[in-house]
C-alpha cells in the first residue's frame, strides 16, 4: 500500500497539457469487439480504468498489442468467449457494463460479473436493460452476475428511461449491428457518447444526430477495421486542473481543453468573479471537437446567488459538480450545491470538513458550502468516489503544512500521471510506499 504526502500552500505556475478522456476510452475499447478485425487507437489514457478494460478484453479473447504509450491495437477476429472473463477486472470497473451493447452481435449467451467503480448509492442498470430489450438483448440479474442472452437484433424505437451516458452507449452499440432502423430519443449527447459515435462511424456505422438527444441508427451487417482513431481530450480532467489553479490561487494555463463541454462551467466561474483568458482555439486530433488553451488568473470569488446543480449535456457536467464544492469553499458567501443524481455523493462531500471546509448537509442530495475558508492540513482516506477523492487532494494542496491522503487508487482510476503533472508546475506531492 502507498499514500500521498502533500506539502501544501504551494503556488502553481506554467502550463499543463490536459489528458485524453477516460469515459471515451473505455467505451471505444469495448466497441472494438464489434469489429471482426483490427482497430488502432491513439491517445488512450494510461490509467487504471483503461488497464481494467484491457484485462477484460484479453480475457475474452481479444488480442491487445501496445504499440507505444497511448497507442494500442485491438484484434477481435477470433471468436470471443466469456467463459474465462476476468472476474477481478469486472468487479473493479462499472465500465464492464459496456460489454452488454458491444457483444450484442457477437456472443449469444454469457455471464457478466456485476461491476464496481464509484460507490454512489444505487446505480440501477434498468435504463440499460429497457433500451437493450427493445433491440433483442436480455439480461437477468443474479446475485453476483448478469445472465445475458442475445436474440436476433432488430431496430426499434427507444425512449431512454434515463438519459445516462453508459446506457445510451449500450443502446447505440447494439443498434449499430441490428437489422433495420433504430431511433433513440432522450439520448445522452455527452462528450463520450459523441466520441464513441465518431469512432463507430469511422468503422462504417450509420448514425445520424450525433451531438443531439435524438439518434437515428441504420444497422449494418458488419463494421470495417479502423486504422487509427484518436481519443478526445477529457473535460473532467481539464476542469480538475482549472480547479487546482483556482483553489491554490495560482496563475496557470491548461492546454487541450474541450471547450464545448466546459462553457457552462466557465460561465459559472466568471459570474463568481474568476478571471481567465481563452488563449488559443483549435480542433482535436480526431477533428471532431473544439479545443482551447485556458489561462487562469488568481481571483477573489463571491458565492453564486443561485444553486449549482448538474444535468445531462448540455449542462454542468455531473462529474464536474464535486469540483465546484471545493471551488466555492474559496468564495465569499454561501452556495447551495444540488447533487440530485446520486444518493451518496453529497454525503461524501463532508470529507472536506477534515481539511477545514464549512459544509452543511441538508439531505442526501443538497449541501450548503460557506466561504471563504483556508484549507487546513490533515490526514484522510479517499472516499470510494473518484471526483470527491480528487477534491480532497486539491484542498490539501492549498493547505499550509503536511497532509496525508490514503486509498488513492480511486484517483488513479481516472487521472494519468496526476501527481507528477502537478509537481511539474509547483506542487509538492510525494508517493510514499509503506
Report the count of strand segments.
Answer: 24
User: How many domains comprise the coordinates?
Assistant: 2
The SS-based structural class is: alpha/beta
CATH topology of the largest domain: UDP-n-acetylglucosamine1-carboxyvinyl-transferase, Chain
What is the 3D form?
Answer: globular
Mean pLDDT: 95
Describe the secondary structure blueprint for this structure.
Blueprint: E1 2-7, E2 13-17, H1 22-31, E3 38-42, H2 48-59, E4 63-68, E5 71-75, H3 87-92, H4 99-102, E6 109-113, H5 126-135, E7 137-141, E8 145-150, E9 157-159, H6 165-176, E10 181-185, H7 191-202, E11 206-208, E12 214-218, E13 226-230, H8 235-247, E14 251-258, H9 263-271, E15 275-283, E16 290-297, E17 301-302, E18 308-309, H10 321-328, E19 331-338, H11 345-348, E20 358-363, E21 366-371, E22 379-381, H12 386-398, E23 402-406, H13 409-412, H14 418-424, E24 429-433
Parallel strand pairs: 2-14, 3-13, 9-10, 17-19, 18-19, 22-23
Antiparallel strand pairs: 1-23, 1-24, 3-5, 4-5, 6-8, 7-8, 10-12, 11-12, 14-16, 15-16, 19-21, 20-21
Helix pairs in contact: 1-2, 1-7, 5-6, 6-7, 8-10, 8-12, 10-12
Describe the structure concisely for a colleague.
The chain has two domains: about 1-20 and about 235-434, Enolpyruvate transferase domain (UDP-n-acetylglucosamine1-carboxyvinyl-transferase, Chain); about 20-230, UDP-n-acetylglucosamine1-carboxyvinyl-transferase, Chain (Alpha-beta prism), CATH 3.65.10.10.
Question: Could you characterize what this model shows?
Answer:
The protein has 434 residues and is of the alpha/beta class. The chain has 2 domains: 219 residues, Enolpyruvate transferase domain (UDP-n-acetylglucosamine1-carboxyvinyl-transferase, Chain, Alpha-beta prism), CATH 3.65.10; 209 residues, Enolpyruvate transferase domain (UDP-n-acetylglucosamine1-carboxyvinyl-transferase, Chain, Alpha-beta prism), CATH 3.65.10.10. The protein is built from 14 helices and 24 strands. A hairpin with a 5-residue loop joins strand 11 and strand 12. The termini are close together. The mean pLDDT is 95.
Amino acid at each position: 500500500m502507498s499514500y500521498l504526502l502533500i506539502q501544501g500552500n504551494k503556488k502553481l505556475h506554467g502550463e499543463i497539457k490536459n489528458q485524453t478522456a477516460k469515459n471515451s476510452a473505455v467505451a471505444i475499447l469495448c466497441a472494438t469487439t464489434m469489429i471482426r478485425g483490427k482497430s488502432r487507437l491513439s491517445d488512450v489514457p494510461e490509467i487504471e480504468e483503461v488497464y481494467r478494460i484491457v484485462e477484460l478484453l484479453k480475457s475474452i479473447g481479444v488480442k491487445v498489442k501496445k504499440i507505444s504509450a497511448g497507442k494500442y491495437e485491438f484484434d477481435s477476429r477470433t471468436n470471443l468467449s466469456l467463459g474465462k472473463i476476468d472476474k477481478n477486472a469486472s468487479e473493479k470497473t462499472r465500465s464492464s457494463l459496456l460489454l452488454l451493447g458491444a457483444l450484442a452481435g457477437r456472443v449469444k449467451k454469457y455471464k457478466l460479473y456485476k461491476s464496481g467503480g464509484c460507490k454512489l448509492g444505487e446505480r440501477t442498470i434498468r435504463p440499460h436493460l429497457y433500451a437493450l430489450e427493445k433491440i433483442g438483448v436480455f439480461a437477468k440479474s443474479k446475485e453476483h452476475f448478469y445472465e445475458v442472452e442475445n436474440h436476433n437484433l432488430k431496430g426499434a424505437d427507444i425512449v431512454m428511461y434515463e438519459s445516462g451516458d453508459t446506457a445510451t452507449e449500450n443502446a447505440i452499440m447494439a443498434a449499430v449491428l441490428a437489422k433495420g432502423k433504430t431511433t433513440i430519443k432522450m439520448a445522452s449527447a455527452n462528450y463520450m457518447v459523441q466520441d464513441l459515435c465518431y469512432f463507430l462511424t469511422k468503422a462504417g456505422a450509420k448514425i445520424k444526430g450525433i451531438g443531439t438527444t435524438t439518434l437515428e441508427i441504420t444497422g449494418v451487417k458488419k463494421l470495417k477495421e479502423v486504422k487509427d482513431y484518436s481519443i478526445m481530450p477529457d473535460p473532467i480532467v481539464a476542469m480538475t486542473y482549472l480547479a487546482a489553479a483556482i483553489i491554490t490561487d495560482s496563475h496557470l494555463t491548461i492546454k487541450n481543453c474541450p471547450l464545448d463541454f466546459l462553457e457552462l462551467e466557465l460561465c459559472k466561474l466568471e459570474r463568481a468573479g474568476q478571471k481567465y483568458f481563452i488563449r488559443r482555439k483549435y480542433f482535436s486530433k480526431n477533428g471532431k471537437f473544439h479545443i482551447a488553451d485556458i489561462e487562469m488568473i488568481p481571483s477573489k470569488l463571491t458565492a453564486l446567488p443561485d444553486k449549482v446543480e448538474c444535468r445531462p449535456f448540455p449542462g454542468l457536467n455531473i462529474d464536474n459538480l464535486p469540483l465546484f464544492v471545493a471551488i466555492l469553499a474559496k468564495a465569499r458567501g454561501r452556495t447551495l450545491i444540488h447533487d440530485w443524481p446520486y444518493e451518496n455523493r453529497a454525503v461524501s462531500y463532508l470529507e472536506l470538513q477534515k481539511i477545514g471546509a464549512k459544509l452543511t448537509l441538508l439531505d442526501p442530495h443538497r449541501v450548503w458550502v460557506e466561504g471563504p475558508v483556508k484549507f487546513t492540513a490533515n490526514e484522510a482516506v479517499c472516499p470510494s468516489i473518484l471526483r470527491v477523492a480528487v477534491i480532497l487532494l486539491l484542498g490539501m494542496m492549498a493547505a499550509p503544512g503536511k497532509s496525508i491522503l490514503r486509498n488513492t487508487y480511486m484517483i488513479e482510476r481516472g487521472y494519468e500521471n496526476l501527481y507528477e503533472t502537478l509537481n511539474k508546475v509547483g506542487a509538492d506531492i510525494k508517493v510514499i510506499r509503506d
